[in-house]
Sequence to fold (298 residues):
Amino acid sequence: MPCRSMASPHWILLLVLLFIVSGTMGAPPKRPVAVPFGRNYAPTWALDHIKYYNGGSEIELHLDKYTGTGFQSKGSYLFGHFSMQIKLVPGDSAGTVTAFYLSSQNSEHDEIDFEFLGNRTGQPYILQTNVFTGGKGDREQRIYLWFDPTKAYHSYSVLWNMYLVVFFVDDIPIRVFKNCKDLGVRFPFNQPMKIYSSLWNADDWATRGGLEKTDWSKAPFIAAYKGFHIDGCESSVEAKFCATQGKRWWDQKEFQDLDSYQWRRLLWVRTKFTIYNYCTDRVRYPTVPPECRRDRDI
Fold:
Protein backbone atom coordinates (compact mmCIF):
# COMPACT_ATOMS: atom_id res chain seq x y z
CA MET A 1 0.00 0.00 0.00
CA PRO A 2 1.53 3.37 -0.99
CA CYS A 3 2.54 5.78 1.71
CA ARG A 4 0.34 8.83 2.23
CA SER A 5 1.09 11.96 4.24
CA MET A 6 -1.39 12.77 6.95
CA ALA A 7 -3.72 15.67 6.08
CA SER A 8 -3.74 18.65 8.40
CA PRO A 9 -6.87 19.31 10.50
CA HIS A 10 -7.58 22.37 8.33
CA TRP A 11 -7.63 20.29 5.17
CA ILE A 12 -9.82 17.67 6.80
CA LEU A 13 -12.32 20.36 7.87
CA LEU A 14 -12.32 21.82 4.36
CA LEU A 15 -12.96 18.42 2.77
CA VAL A 16 -15.83 17.74 5.16
CA LEU A 17 -17.41 21.12 4.34
CA LEU A 18 -17.03 20.52 0.61
CA PHE A 19 -18.61 17.08 1.01
CA ILE A 20 -21.62 18.53 2.84
CA VAL A 21 -22.13 21.43 0.48
CA SER A 22 -21.72 19.42 -2.73
CA GLY A 23 -24.54 17.04 -1.86
CA THR A 24 -22.86 14.26 -3.81
CA MET A 25 -23.74 11.58 -1.30
CA GLY A 26 -26.85 10.95 0.69
CA ALA A 27 -27.33 8.35 3.41
CA PRO A 28 -30.29 6.03 2.87
CA PRO A 29 -33.26 7.00 5.02
CA LYS A 30 -33.89 4.86 8.06
CA ARG A 31 -37.49 4.72 6.93
CA PRO A 32 -39.28 6.11 3.87
CA VAL A 33 -40.70 9.60 4.28
CA ALA A 34 -44.46 9.28 3.77
CA VAL A 35 -46.56 12.19 2.54
CA PRO A 36 -50.32 12.59 1.98
CA PHE A 37 -51.73 10.84 -1.07
CA GLY A 38 -52.47 14.05 -3.00
CA ARG A 39 -48.90 15.35 -2.78
CA ASN A 40 -47.58 12.98 -5.43
CA TYR A 41 -50.60 11.01 -6.68
CA ALA A 42 -53.94 11.55 -8.41
CA PRO A 43 -56.87 9.20 -9.20
CA THR A 44 -56.73 7.53 -12.60
CA TRP A 45 -60.36 6.44 -13.05
CA ALA A 46 -63.59 5.83 -11.10
CA LEU A 47 -62.92 8.64 -8.64
CA ASP A 48 -65.97 7.70 -6.57
CA HIS A 49 -64.38 4.31 -5.83
CA ILE A 50 -61.50 5.90 -3.89
CA LYS A 51 -62.14 6.79 -0.23
CA TYR A 52 -59.90 9.14 1.78
CA TYR A 53 -59.11 9.02 5.50
CA ASN A 54 -56.87 10.81 8.01
CA GLY A 55 -56.44 13.92 5.91
CA GLY A 56 -55.51 11.94 2.82
CA SER A 57 -52.70 10.00 4.47
CA GLU A 58 -54.68 6.79 4.01
CA ILE A 59 -56.96 5.72 1.16
CA GLU A 60 -59.07 2.75 0.12
CA LEU A 61 -59.66 1.41 -3.37
CA HIS A 62 -63.07 -0.18 -3.89
CA LEU A 63 -63.95 -2.81 -6.51
CA ASP A 64 -67.53 -3.79 -7.37
CA LYS A 65 -69.16 -5.54 -10.33
CA TYR A 66 -69.27 -2.25 -12.23
CA THR A 67 -65.68 -1.07 -11.95
CA GLY A 68 -62.41 -1.09 -10.11
CA THR A 69 -60.24 1.95 -9.64
CA GLY A 70 -56.66 3.14 -9.44
CA PHE A 71 -54.25 6.04 -9.15
CA GLN A 72 -50.95 7.21 -10.63
CA SER A 73 -48.11 9.51 -9.72
CA LYS A 74 -48.25 13.07 -10.97
CA GLY A 75 -44.59 12.94 -11.98
CA SER A 76 -42.41 10.57 -13.99
CA TYR A 77 -39.17 9.22 -12.55
CA LEU A 78 -35.90 7.87 -13.89
CA PHE A 79 -34.45 5.76 -11.05
CA GLY A 80 -35.15 5.98 -7.34
CA HIS A 81 -36.71 4.28 -4.33
CA PHE A 82 -40.49 3.88 -4.26
CA SER A 83 -42.61 2.23 -1.60
CA MET A 84 -46.18 1.82 -0.48
CA GLN A 85 -47.83 0.27 2.56
CA ILE A 86 -50.76 -1.88 1.49
CA LYS A 87 -53.38 -3.95 3.28
CA LEU A 88 -54.89 -6.35 0.79
CA VAL A 89 -58.52 -7.36 0.20
CA PRO A 90 -59.57 -9.64 3.09
CA GLY A 91 -61.76 -12.73 2.96
CA ASP A 92 -62.79 -14.21 -0.37
CA SER A 93 -60.67 -12.23 -2.85
CA ALA A 94 -60.62 -14.77 -5.69
CA GLY A 95 -60.47 -13.16 -9.12
CA THR A 96 -59.21 -9.80 -7.85
CA VAL A 97 -55.80 -8.28 -8.50
CA THR A 98 -54.23 -5.50 -6.45
CA ALA A 99 -51.31 -3.98 -8.34
CA PHE A 100 -48.45 -1.63 -7.49
CA TYR A 101 -46.08 -0.96 -10.37
CA LEU A 102 -43.92 1.42 -12.37
CA SER A 103 -44.44 1.82 -16.11
CA SER A 104 -43.20 4.03 -18.94
CA GLN A 105 -45.56 5.57 -21.46
CA ASN A 106 -44.68 4.19 -24.90
CA SER A 107 -45.23 0.97 -26.85
CA GLU A 108 -41.78 -0.49 -26.13
CA HIS A 109 -42.40 0.19 -22.50
CA ASP A 110 -40.46 -0.66 -19.37
CA GLU A 111 -42.40 -1.90 -16.36
CA ILE A 112 -41.70 -3.15 -12.83
CA ASP A 113 -44.68 -5.01 -11.32
CA PHE A 114 -46.05 -6.15 -7.99
CA GLU A 115 -49.34 -8.01 -8.59
CA PHE A 116 -51.22 -9.55 -5.66
CA LEU A 117 -53.48 -12.36 -6.85
CA GLY A 118 -56.52 -12.96 -4.67
CA ASN A 119 -57.76 -16.36 -3.59
CA ARG A 120 -60.65 -18.19 -2.00
CA THR A 121 -61.13 -17.75 1.74
CA GLY A 122 -58.45 -19.63 3.66
CA GLN A 123 -56.08 -19.90 0.71
CA PRO A 124 -52.97 -17.70 0.64
CA TYR A 125 -52.42 -14.72 -1.61
CA ILE A 126 -49.89 -15.11 -4.39
CA LEU A 127 -47.48 -12.27 -5.09
CA GLN A 128 -46.43 -12.15 -8.73
CA THR A 129 -43.59 -9.92 -9.88
CA ASN A 130 -42.61 -9.16 -13.45
CA VAL A 131 -40.12 -6.98 -15.31
CA PHE A 132 -40.69 -5.58 -18.81
CA THR A 133 -37.82 -4.05 -20.78
CA GLY A 134 -38.33 -2.61 -24.25
CA GLY A 135 -41.85 -4.04 -24.31
CA LYS A 136 -40.74 -7.58 -23.47
CA GLY A 137 -42.04 -9.18 -20.31
CA ASP A 138 -42.74 -12.88 -19.60
CA ARG A 139 -40.38 -12.76 -16.62
CA GLU A 140 -42.87 -13.81 -13.96
CA GLN A 141 -41.90 -14.98 -10.50
CA ARG A 142 -44.50 -16.01 -7.92
CA ILE A 143 -44.19 -16.42 -4.18
CA TYR A 144 -46.37 -17.00 -1.15
CA LEU A 145 -45.93 -14.38 1.55
CA TRP A 146 -44.80 -15.42 5.04
CA PHE A 147 -47.63 -13.45 6.68
CA ASP A 148 -51.31 -12.69 6.10
CA PRO A 149 -51.24 -9.49 4.00
CA THR A 150 -54.89 -8.71 4.78
CA LYS A 151 -54.48 -8.36 8.56
CA ALA A 152 -52.15 -5.36 8.69
CA TYR A 153 -50.20 -2.98 6.49
CA HIS A 154 -46.95 -4.22 4.99
CA SER A 155 -44.36 -2.32 2.97
CA TYR A 156 -43.70 -3.10 -0.71
CA SER A 157 -40.76 -1.27 -2.28
CA VAL A 158 -38.72 -0.96 -5.46
CA LEU A 159 -35.09 0.19 -5.60
CA TRP A 160 -34.14 1.07 -9.18
CA ASN A 161 -30.80 2.40 -10.36
CA MET A 162 -28.41 1.90 -13.28
CA TYR A 163 -27.18 -1.40 -11.85
CA LEU A 164 -30.24 -3.31 -10.73
CA VAL A 165 -33.90 -3.41 -9.80
CA VAL A 166 -34.71 -4.86 -6.39
CA PHE A 167 -38.18 -5.80 -5.11
CA PHE A 168 -38.58 -5.63 -1.33
CA VAL A 169 -41.30 -6.85 1.04
CA ASP A 170 -40.87 -5.29 4.50
CA ASP A 171 -37.22 -4.53 3.57
CA ILE A 172 -36.56 -8.17 2.65
CA PRO A 173 -35.41 -8.56 -0.97
CA ILE A 174 -37.61 -11.01 -2.85
CA ARG A 175 -36.24 -10.46 -6.34
CA VAL A 176 -33.28 -8.87 -8.14
CA PHE A 177 -33.10 -7.97 -11.83
CA LYS A 178 -29.56 -6.93 -12.74
CA ASN A 179 -28.35 -4.79 -15.61
CA CYS A 180 -27.23 -7.39 -18.17
CA LYS A 181 -26.86 -5.17 -21.22
CA ASP A 182 -23.50 -6.81 -21.89
CA LEU A 183 -25.43 -10.07 -22.40
CA GLY A 184 -27.82 -8.46 -24.86
CA VAL A 185 -30.65 -8.00 -22.35
CA ARG A 186 -32.33 -4.60 -22.29
CA PHE A 187 -32.44 -2.79 -18.97
CA PRO A 188 -34.75 0.07 -17.93
CA PHE A 189 -32.37 3.03 -17.95
CA ASN A 190 -33.65 5.71 -20.34
CA GLN A 191 -37.45 5.71 -20.09
CA PRO A 192 -38.96 7.59 -17.14
CA MET A 193 -41.79 5.77 -15.41
CA LYS A 194 -44.87 6.75 -13.47
CA ILE A 195 -45.98 4.84 -10.37
CA TYR A 196 -49.40 3.21 -10.52
CA SER A 197 -51.68 1.21 -8.30
CA SER A 198 -55.03 -0.37 -9.07
CA LEU A 199 -57.65 -2.82 -7.86
CA TRP A 200 -59.46 -4.66 -10.65
CA ASN A 201 -61.22 -7.85 -11.67
CA ALA A 202 -59.09 -10.43 -13.51
CA ASP A 203 -61.01 -13.63 -12.89
CA ASP A 204 -60.17 -14.83 -16.40
CA TRP A 205 -56.62 -15.65 -15.18
CA ALA A 206 -55.78 -14.45 -11.67
CA THR A 207 -56.91 -17.36 -9.48
CA ARG A 208 -56.03 -20.91 -10.54
CA GLY A 209 -55.67 -19.78 -14.12
CA GLY A 210 -59.22 -18.44 -14.23
CA LEU A 211 -60.96 -21.47 -12.71
CA GLU A 212 -62.02 -19.50 -9.62
CA LYS A 213 -64.37 -16.63 -10.47
CA THR A 214 -65.05 -13.45 -8.51
CA ASP A 215 -67.96 -13.81 -6.08
CA TRP A 216 -69.71 -10.46 -6.50
CA SER A 217 -71.94 -11.14 -3.48
CA LYS A 218 -68.80 -10.34 -1.43
CA ALA A 219 -68.37 -6.90 -3.07
CA PRO A 220 -67.20 -4.27 -2.52
CA PHE A 221 -63.65 -5.59 -2.35
CA ILE A 222 -61.40 -3.11 -0.54
CA ALA A 223 -57.62 -2.62 -0.52
CA ALA A 224 -56.14 0.01 1.81
CA TYR A 225 -53.04 2.16 1.26
CA LYS A 226 -50.83 4.49 3.26
CA GLY A 227 -47.14 5.42 3.53
CA PHE A 228 -46.98 7.05 0.08
CA HIS A 229 -43.25 7.42 -0.56
CA ILE A 230 -41.31 8.57 -3.62
CA ASP A 231 -37.59 9.36 -3.62
CA GLY A 232 -36.68 9.48 -7.28
CA CYS A 233 -35.18 11.53 -10.06
CA GLU A 234 -38.19 13.35 -11.48
CA SER A 235 -38.01 13.79 -15.25
CA SER A 236 -40.11 14.65 -18.25
CA VAL A 237 -41.44 11.66 -20.16
CA GLU A 238 -38.95 12.45 -22.95
CA ALA A 239 -35.90 12.49 -20.66
CA LYS A 240 -33.09 10.03 -21.42
CA PHE A 241 -30.95 10.58 -18.35
CA CYS A 242 -31.20 11.71 -14.74
CA ALA A 243 -29.71 15.15 -14.09
CA THR A 244 -28.61 14.06 -10.60
CA GLN A 245 -27.12 10.75 -11.77
CA GLY A 246 -24.64 9.46 -9.21
CA LYS A 247 -25.60 11.98 -6.52
CA ARG A 248 -28.52 10.33 -4.71
CA TRP A 249 -28.28 7.78 -1.91
CA TRP A 250 -29.79 5.02 -4.05
CA ASP A 251 -27.12 5.68 -6.70
CA GLN A 252 -24.12 4.98 -4.49
CA LYS A 253 -21.74 2.04 -4.62
CA GLU A 254 -23.32 0.21 -1.70
CA PHE A 255 -26.58 -0.02 -3.68
CA GLN A 256 -25.05 -1.58 -6.79
CA ASP A 257 -25.63 -5.05 -5.35
CA LEU A 258 -27.17 -6.74 -2.33
CA ASP A 259 -24.98 -7.27 0.68
CA SER A 260 -24.33 -10.76 2.05
CA TYR A 261 -27.18 -10.54 4.58
CA GLN A 262 -29.65 -9.50 1.87
CA TRP A 263 -28.51 -12.33 -0.39
CA ARG A 264 -29.16 -14.78 2.45
CA ARG A 265 -32.65 -13.34 2.92
CA LEU A 266 -33.33 -13.60 -0.80
CA LEU A 267 -32.21 -17.23 -0.76
CA TRP A 268 -34.55 -17.83 2.20
CA VAL A 269 -37.47 -16.47 0.17
CA ARG A 270 -36.49 -18.54 -2.85
CA THR A 271 -36.14 -21.71 -0.82
CA LYS A 272 -39.21 -21.40 1.39
CA PHE A 273 -41.80 -19.40 -0.53
CA THR A 274 -41.16 -19.42 -4.28
CA ILE A 275 -43.77 -21.34 -6.29
CA TYR A 276 -42.78 -20.25 -9.81
CA ASN A 277 -39.68 -18.74 -11.40
CA TYR A 278 -39.41 -18.28 -15.15
CA CYS A 279 -35.64 -18.77 -14.85
CA THR A 280 -36.16 -22.44 -13.98
CA ASP A 281 -39.06 -23.12 -16.37
CA ARG A 282 -37.49 -25.34 -19.02
CA VAL A 283 -40.83 -25.84 -20.80
CA ARG A 284 -41.20 -22.14 -21.61
CA TYR A 285 -37.47 -21.53 -21.78
CA PRO A 286 -35.49 -24.62 -22.90
CA THR A 287 -32.46 -22.31 -22.94
CA VAL A 288 -31.88 -20.37 -19.73
CA PRO A 289 -32.62 -16.66 -20.33
CA PRO A 290 -29.33 -14.70 -20.32
CA GLU A 291 -30.19 -12.54 -17.31
CA CYS A 292 -30.87 -15.65 -15.23
CA ARG A 293 -27.30 -16.88 -15.71
CA ARG A 294 -26.07 -13.89 -13.73
CA ASP A 295 -28.35 -14.65 -10.82
CA ARG A 296 -26.13 -16.32 -8.23
CA ASP A 297 -28.97 -18.30 -6.59
CA ILE A 298 -30.35 -19.98 -9.72
In short: The chain has one domain: 29-293. Residues 1-26 have pLDDT under 50 and may be disordered. The first strand starts at residue 41 and ends at 45.
